[in-house]
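User: Could you check the structure of this?
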Amino acid sequence: MSWLVTGGAGYIGSHVVRALLSADLDVVVIDDLSSGHREFVPADVPFVDASILDAKALDALFDRHEIDGVVHLAGYKYAGESVKRPLHTYDQNVTGTVALLAAMERAGVTRIVFSSSAGVYGTPTVELVTEATATTPESPYGETKLIGEWLLADQGRATGLVHTSLRYFNVVGSGSVELRDTSPHNLFPLVFRALEAGRVPKIFGDDYPTPDGTCVRDYVHVADVAAAHVAAARRMLAGEAVEPVYNLGSGEGSSVKEIMDAMVRGTGIRFDPEIAPRRPGDPARTVADGALAARDLGWAMTHTLDEMVSSAWEAVRWAR
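Assistant: Sure, the predicted structure tokens are below.
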């Protein structure tokens, strides 16, 4: 029996695949390689090059492999770009999830761990986000992730589907040098590309009511995020109850200045970030409480900020 990882050739998905394998769980991957990389998937892991929108490909996969459950990471994951491409975002994230759930129902697969997002919270009005914090997404991406959670809940009530959704914030770092974040929009790759091109990264606002005046955000290492997916899967296999949603947060966060200081230490490239005006809508502090995930999934932040930066930078250099 295997776990199907949708989007398993992507940055987070490929780490989840390896974490599952390390836990002695067999894995099957489906990915259309629109943003993933075939080389991120171990050669001995069964791989289907297809979209989850392809019902025939999904049915064939479930027919060919005995699947215990699904870790669903496939989707269009760019919040800013989703504003420009709302229909594409809904098609990939909502229609795709409907297609996956329908195929699971046809195949009798009753467990799913869903990759959700802090985007469901929009701009929180509280300093510490809990699972009870109001969900007010502000982008098509955040909306589709929240709809995905609703779909799982509705299917659970209708069919007994066992499900949980993991909401995480800024995923960074690398758990293995051959796996890296290649997103054109995420913070770490943007800073690395700027430094390699000789440009100075920017800090947007240094007059916030925080200890050093810069915004505070949650940053979590990708290996820790992957471990939470495995813990959820194993809990389901053991027949233990899971909550509908879990936040994967640090409870403390890091400031933008702290990130930049860690970038200097991790890359060895000295720079003084440019201070730019505040961006409209940026809250001073957005940090999540991970207590519920700690209770049920053994969730813990096991990597320091310096380790997040150095591991990500090492993967970038390895890929050259």
